Amino acid sequence: MFQIKENIISKDNANNNSLNISSKSAVLIENNNGRILYSKNKDKEMIPASITKIMTLNLIFDALESGKIKLDDEVSTSEYAASMGGSQVFLEPGEIQTVDTMIKCISISSANDAAVSMAEYIAGSETDFVKMMNEKARKLGMKHSNFKNCNGLDDSIKSGHFSSAYDVALMSRELITKYPKILEYSSIWMENITHVTRQGTKEFGLTNTNKLIRTYNGITGLKTGSTSKAKYCLSATAKRNGISLTAVVMAAPDPKKRFSEAASLLDYGFSLCKNYSEKTSKIIPETLKINGGKKNEIKLKTLEDFKYILVNNESSDKISRKVYLKKTVNAPLKNNEKVGKIVYLLDDKKIKEIPIYTSEAIAKSSFFDYMLLLIKKLTKSVYKSDIHNIEIKINDKCYIFNAKLDTGCNVKEPFSGKSVIVAEKEVFNDFVPDKTKVRLIPFTSLGGSGILQGFCADNIIIDGKEADNSVYIGICENIFKDDIKAIIPSELINN
Q1: Tens digit of each residue's pLDDT, the chain (495 residues)
Q2: Which of 7, 121, 165, 381 has its CA 20 to 30 A from that of 324?
Q3: For the domain bounded by 25-273, which CATH number is listed?
């Protein structure tokens, strides 16, 4: 949901009105950042007529997104909905149409009966639906709008049903940006629907009320409106070369003027704007280091590229960026967890912030995870001098295995301070130590912490040479690779 600051950057205004806009109010915005390119009485409270239905469509698509309704849901027309009059598709009481068809009727033919049918289907009554419309308007920052119905049939500001050109632009931008699927409906010129009633089956033709659909290059929608008091209104959306614009005219003197003046505004906007974009995935580091995780690094991602519309004399050369990212993060980490951001600036003023996310979940590591990572790291490049033959005698039994030298191994028996050889338990699978002689040996590192069961051997021989028999043997899970069954601290080799 968008709520944008009013940033007017147009060279034109209502006083000089170089575009010769005769409509009582008008506004032109670019939809990427929501900046106002032109305005005339943009906040003047006016009768919106059927462009009211832009808010109705917003709520319909909100309900679709939330799963409250589906496109193939069947909607029954009430007597109240069928009695609307004005622009309609002549739905009969009890007639059933799908949500998809109702959206077509609203978007193409501005059908009042279809709008009320959908309002009742979503909220239970038009009254409750109108409450939702006004709540949505407040969230969008529409300060000069209030709705009394869902179709715009009310023809009086005194009744409390009104909006402004800028507010119409806000709700139009919300609709087409958040729900681009609406453009599949609003860009249809002609289509047929089928009435199935007690009187039988008959085809009914829909023709778009927005004549720019056939005449304007890049037009995508959106909605017309007219009553005797509202005169002629239009919210026109168009897109060219990645530039998306919304032009709103209200109270145009005649139908031709609303289309010609909306087209003039769009032409002006496209002449004013240049599109600039950048792949954010190429800006951020590929990975980030992790402390205490099952992996020691995690891949990073962004969910959007940087897009900005340059207006007037703005230059891409004056766009700069700053990447804010910690050197390391601590596990655990969730997928799509925010770990940084890219801040874009134009002339040293912030214009956009794009979050940086993790690309997967990383659990916190245990002691044994750390040992496994350590061994994998140590054995990537194995030299013969790093592998040592260990012979341990306990209770007249002899255990022979290979150990990997680990210069970073600093596990010590806490009371004596003696060195510890960390070995897999499968090496001593037939040995049951005397419980009275077992020592609990804590291990702490950046990768995690744990407790080893340790004991002393009767005799330790390393590479054929007798070692200090007071060295402890710490038992771990079976985590080592190949024929390596233990890690040995460097001081035992040096000694």
Answers
A1: 444 445 555 443 433 347 899 999 999 999 998 999 999 999 999 999 999 999 999 999 999 999 999 999 999 999 999 999 889 999 999 999 999 999 999 999 999 999 999 999 999 999 999 999 999 999 999 999 999 999 998 767 778 999 999 999 999 999 999 999 999 999 999 999 999 888 889 999 999 999 999 999 999 999 999 999 999 999 999 999 999 999 999 999 999 999 999 999 999 999 999 989 999 999 999 999 998 888 889 999 999 999 999 998 889 999 999 999 988 899 999 999 999 999 999 998 999 999 999 999 998 877 666 666 565 554 444 444 578 888 988 888 888 888 888 766 678 888 888 888 888 888 888 888 888 888 888 876 555 567 888 888 888 888 888 887 778 888 887 777 778 888 888 777 766
A2: 7
A3: 3.40.710.10
Q: For 331-447, where are the E strands, in sequence order?
A: 338-346, 349-358, 387-394, 397-406, 420-424, 439-445
- Strand ranges in 65-129 using DSSP code E only, listed in sequence order: 74-76, 96-98
Domain ranges in the chain are 25-273, 279-358, 367-494
- Backbone phi and psi for residue 457, each to the nearest 5 degrees, phi listed first: -95, 160
Which CATH architecture describes the domain 367-494? Answer: Beta Barrel (2.40)
Topology classification of domain 279-358:
Peptidoglycan synthesis regulatory factor (PBP3), Domain 2 (2.60.410)
CA proximity to 214, closest of 190, 249, 240, 235: 190
Tokens 């106002």, located at residue? 36
Query: What pTM was computed for the model?
Result: 0.70
